[in-house]
Amino acid sequence: MTTALSPVEQIKSDSRGLRGTLVESLADAHTGSLREPDQVLIKFHGSYQQDDRDLREERAESKLEPKYSFMIRTRTPGGIVTPAQWLAFDAIAQRYANGTLRLTTRQAIQLHGVVKHELKSTMQAINRCLIDTIAACGDVNRNVLVSANPVQSEAHALVYADAVALSEALLPKTRAYHEIWLDEQQIAGTPEHEPLYGPSYLPRKFKTAFVLPPHNDVDVYAHDLGYAAVIVDGVLTGYNVSVGGGLGTTHGDARTYARAASLLGCIPRGQEIAVAQAVLTTQRDWGNREDRRLSRLKYTLDRVGLEAFRAEVEARSGVKFAPAAPPRFEARGDRFGWLPGHDGRWHLNLRVVAGRIADRGEERWLSGLRAIARVHAGDFRITPNQNLVIAGIEAHARPEIERIALEHGLLAGLDRSPVERDALACVALPTCPLAMAEAERYVAEFSAKVQALLARAGVPEETLSLRISGCPNGCSRPYLAEVALVGKAPGRYNLHLGGDRLGTRLNRLYRENIDEAEILATLERDFGRWRRERATAESFGDYADRVLLAESA
User: Fold this and answer.
1) Could you confirm whether 129 is annotated as catalytic?
2) Read out DSSP for 289-320?
3) Are 514 and 532 in contact (CB under 8 A)?
4) Contact 133/47 with Cβ under 8 angstroms?
5) 53 catalytic, yes or no?
6) How far apart are CA 506 and CA 482, in angstroms?
7) Looking at 19, 43, 67, 73, which residue is catalytic?
8) From the candidates 175, 289, 426, 467, which is the catalytic residue?
9) Is 204 a catalytic residue?
10) Candidates 356, 471, 477, 501; catalytic one
């Protein structure tokens, strides 16, 4: 008996290698929207169709279609861009987008507010600065994360090189992107083949991360595929491989859940691409294509079992896994301010609230980073925590970089509390179509209120991982935080507690569908209990997991 494919699966299989009718949709001047199937396919090209939800009701009353626009996301493995590329994106944001840039938790740059008739010109401008958006979204391997840690050792450069090579190896082979956006001519009669993805690509998105212990800044267990570097006497010898992480859930569907990745085994360096291809193709063939809610690798892994999955990956890759040793992590938040590098150069780690690069009030991020890019000889590194590292600064250039940063208010975030510095938030309203509540526009205000609660409880210096997501999809990796808000409705959230400080343990639902007043009252009570009852140096997440969640079970 056969089961019906989901509608998205049918769109992909009929798409002619992700081409669909995108050319015709883009040419239709009667609407700012794409045809519905093309709204699915454009994700594989690195873009999402969105609309301004703040204006929906007003426009509907005026019998106008929603104010459609497009978000475009880069493929920048490890989040490294040159000063010239930064200046190019700055100019693109002013010319085609909403005048801001956004740094994502996947180390990418996002443009928002691009209208349909300028979408192709924007894509071409991005391509001219030697960056593309291929596979930044969609049911493929997305932007590959790498620990943004330029100070640890020379091993970082090797891990970054491995991540870039893997990103290239897992790219789709279709030339649809080049034909539609860059005017490449299709060669008649030339067969096109997707050896990794096949005609329907993956059942769902696929995320990969590389991490250099002891710093877990990528939240490696949140990903479908993770590589934790094994470094012996300063030499990168291999990777501990993890599979099956994924944080997206669906409200009201108990079949869906967040899952932390499982360790698959250890491999020597040089086998990471073969293993990645085997994991990807196993998920391609074994994953659920009938119900997209259950189509991530985590569900495949739990359905077939870790041992069967490992055996299949070994058979497909020709790689025999050695037993894995769990990586030892000591921290995961970004380290801020000036940090020395192993090569004598310096790195300035800046706090960017929710990753939004804009000129607002005394913090003039666009102008300040534009000025830095014009004199900087190193590079920019987007962190997996939405922050930015001005990396590779020669000692003699440090005073000038600091002067520019000070003049533009870029160092203000360094004086905020650890809670406010480390808090993450997805975009949410007004542009994300999935958002149920605020996140980016709320995180600064809410994190300051949480810090005030900690001060009242007598623990003002404590670190606390706090994350806000506008919906249960989990783009801000909320289910690995000590305290997380997951949007349920405007002004209402599910409160999750109990993740650990190192990103190795999921939190759990503690209170459902509550407003800010109840959230703050709950946290104030529980912070007080934590201070009075905790074991020596016990973090709030560990206390919540041991006591609060046990009581509420």
Assistant:
1) no
2) SS-GGG-SHHHHHHHH-HHHHHHHHHHHH--P
3) no
4) yes
5) no
6) 9
7) 73
8) 426
9) no
10) 471
Which tokens sit at 483? 């305290």
Residues sharing a CB contact under 8 Å with residue 435, sequence separation 6 or more, in sequence order: 53, 426, 427, 428, 429, 470, 471, 487
For residue 80, the SS3 value is strand
Instruction: State how far the Cα of 551 lies from the Cα of 65, in Å rounded to an integer.
Output: 50
Residues 6+ apart with CB under 8 A from 30: none
- Cβ-based neighbours of 410, under 8 Å, separated by 6 or more: 350, 363, 364, 365, 368, 369, 404
Phi, psi of 211 (to 5 degrees): -130, 145
> 397 Cβ partners below 8 Å, 6+ apart?
375, 376, 377
What pLDDT shows up at residue 199? 93
Q: What is the DSSP string of 443-496?
A: HHHHHHHHHHHHHHTT-TT----EEEESSTT-TT-GGGSSEEEEEEETTEEEEE
Active site residue 116: no
Mean pLDDT computed over 301-319: 98
- Looking only at the bridges linking them, the beta strands covering 388-393 and 208-211 are unpaired
pLDDT at 170: 98
Instruction: Decide: 429 and 410 in contact? Cβ < 8 Å.
Output: no
- The catalytic residue among 116, 289, 475, 488 is 475
Q: What is the pLDDT of residues 117-170, one digit of tens each?
A: 999 999 999 999 999 999 999 999 999 999 997 666 788 999 999 999 999 999
Got the DSSP string for 172-215? ----HHHHHHH-PPP-TT-----TTT-TT--SS-B-EEEEBTTB
Q: Which of 116, 310, 432, 477 is catalytic?
A: 432
205 is catalytic: yes
Catalytic hit among 12, 75, 205, 356: 205
Q: Give the integer Cα–Cα distance in Å for 495 and 484.
A: 6
Q: At how many degrees (to 10) do helices 272-286 and 306-317 cross?
A: 120
The structure's pTM equals: 0.97
State the number of CA atoms in the 13 A half-sphere of 504 facing the CB: 15
SS (H, E, C) 373-438: HHHCCCEEEECCCCCEEEEEECHHHHHHHHHHHHHCCCCHHHHCCHHHHHCEECCCCCCCCCCCCC
Instruction: Bin 491: left if φ > 0, else alpha if -120 < ψ < 50, else beta.
Output: left
Closest-CA residue to 487 (of 503, 467, 506):
467
pLDDT in tens, 246-260: 999 999 999 999 999
Which entry of 12, 75, 204, 207 is annotated as an active-site residue?
A: 207
Is 265 within 8 Å of 247 (Cβ atoms)?
no
Catalytic residue among 43, 67, 142, 259: 142
Nearest Cα neighbor of 78 from 209, 205, 169, 172 is 209
Distance CA 524, CA 70 (A): 40
43 is catalytic: no
- CA 423, 426, 429, 433: dihedral to nearest 10 degrees? -160
For residue 340, give both structure tokens. Answer: 């020395």
Catalytic residue flag (residue 137): no
Contact 325, 228 (CB under 8 A): no
